[in-house]
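Working notes for the structural subgroup meeting. M.R. asked for a predicted model of this chain before we commit to crystallization trials. I am recording the input and output together here so anyone reviewing the notebook later can reproduce the run.

Input as submitted:
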Amino acid sequence: MTGDRVLTVRALLDTARAEGRTALTAPEGKVLADAYGIAVPGEELATDVDEAVAAAARFAGPVVMKIVSPDTLHKTEAGGVVVGVEGAADVRAAFCRIIENARAYHSAARIEGVQVQELLPQGQEVVVGAVTDPTFGKVVAFVLGGVLGGLLKDVTFRLAPVTADEAMSMLDSIRSAEILRGVRGRAGVDRWAVAEQIRRVSQLVADFPEIAEVDLNPVIATPGGAMAADIRVILAESSTPSRRRYPRDAILLTMRRLMQPASVAVIDASNPKADDILGRKAYKSVTDVPGEVDVAVFAIPARFVAAALEEAGRKNIPNAVLIPSGFAEIGEHELQARIVEIAERHGIRLLGPNIYGYYSTWQDLCATFCTPYDVKGGVALTSQSGGIGMAILGFARTTKTGVSAIVGLGNKSDLDEDDLLTWFGEDPHTKCIAMHLEDLKDGRAFVEAARATVPKKPVVVLKAGRTAVGAKAAGSHTGALAGDDAVYDDILRQAGVIRAPGLNDMLEYARALPVLPTPRGGNVVIITGSGGSGVLLSDAVTDHGLSLMEIPPDLDEAFRRFIPPFGAAGNPVDITGGEPPSTYEATIRLGLEDPRIHALVLGYWHTIVTPPMVFAELTARVVAEFRERGVEKPVVASLAGDVEVEEACQYLFERGGVAYPYTTEKPVAALGAKYRWARAAGLL
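Returned structure, recorded in token form:
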């Protein structure tokens, strides 16, 4: 059956192409829908009034009548749709009116007749569609239909094709999901039937790349099923050339030589006649360098790069790091294409051009024009922008964050985020990957790399351009709803990536996630010395999708043993501000001891009784003690107080606790990010 349906649709598309059309007619859409099992109502094509009357008589009850014209895509705008037609006289009148309206709308339009379609019962309108995204390719979409859906743009996207489970997840991903389950006495819809419409559309566009858009609008969902009242299919006007891809093993081999080089050659025009530079022997050409070279770092003007790259190719150097600007970023696309051609011909992978360089700290490598950085650790950071790269460097230095690498990507003429992600996913030194990106050259390759990496370590992305204008000149309702950021948001989430809302968030997540143990359940407990902080921390817990534990009576009684009568158990546990260090310690111990509690959020209030460093030292000591006993739970802390809390927070960060001064939001945001990764990795 699979082969038959492909042949059926292929013949349809070939016919449309041969006739110079970019859209299928309604009867063709019906054939396509039947081939893929997309549920649509019964219908017939009437070429004259008598055929319309006969067709309507074969359907029990009222019918819908629609113009059939390859030149009239927007049938309603053309006055080409009449709903609820019943009886021979009404059918005749509707037929004539539709033809007249269509000719008035487009006098030269080819008219094949009128589609007579059985009228569907009332139900919940939804829209199922697919679009071709420039980054991710074929993407399937689901949105609540009707006026409300159009106003809210309550839409969700997935890469096509989707599985049955992924299709079902889309129904829960819209803000209006409860409407589908039934509200205010109204029965819920057949969710499986709706999900099947999504799955089948996604398979259709995956099988036929030349289909640019599909629109089932509306799909009428009822407790007994889901049926598309109208199907629109638009063909691409031209094919998009595919990007060159490399096998995973080839990527890892090249990246290993880039990130763990045994030898690096710097190609520099600043002093071409020198015999040595800073104690290193200088050569007139890279071809004169003895032995193998893993990386060539280019620090020469753009106009000289091509010739030097040819020499690097003759030397069989596998990686070229192109620091100079002056390429595609200023409109010099031909010059950039030339160096890409040279690199492909010689088997060289290119990093850049237009970058600040890169750091590989575990190799003591600083191949950049920026200041050195050598604090080794588990965080790999990348950026498409040099300015953001400097911000990353300054943040790492200020916070004493240990990094495995900092990499600039610039124009991404070749190497890009999916190459780096593939490497960092396997790199034993890297525990968390954080990436600033403005675009993705190949969204599907990135998703593939992310899906392979996320089960092993967190991936954090800061995607710039959240306010980008949505798809322009879209030929369908689905296309009009597909804005760049909406697609990125859903598909990055689908890949298990943690999306950071801002630069500081990305950097803080990257710093915090390797510190926090993986939670083993969803029960979060707040212990605070300030009622006000407790309220704000509770809000933050809810905002970040976490759950405050309902404290059972025995645990409530246990906490009450350590707090004063005017304090409050429950959750948050308010120990009040005047308590000595022993109260903080006792309640934190209880939170770590009880297996029903999975994560602790601490709210500290600066007092003379318990100074900041005393709180930090006791918390770090208790956490370390429990970790030695095999009890590892995420502990985050918010410290409110005078400037001494800053030192206390740094002390905690260096000893396994994620702590921030002057904020209740940041520690909980970091905890929420850890939970999002744990869920995506299948660890909760």
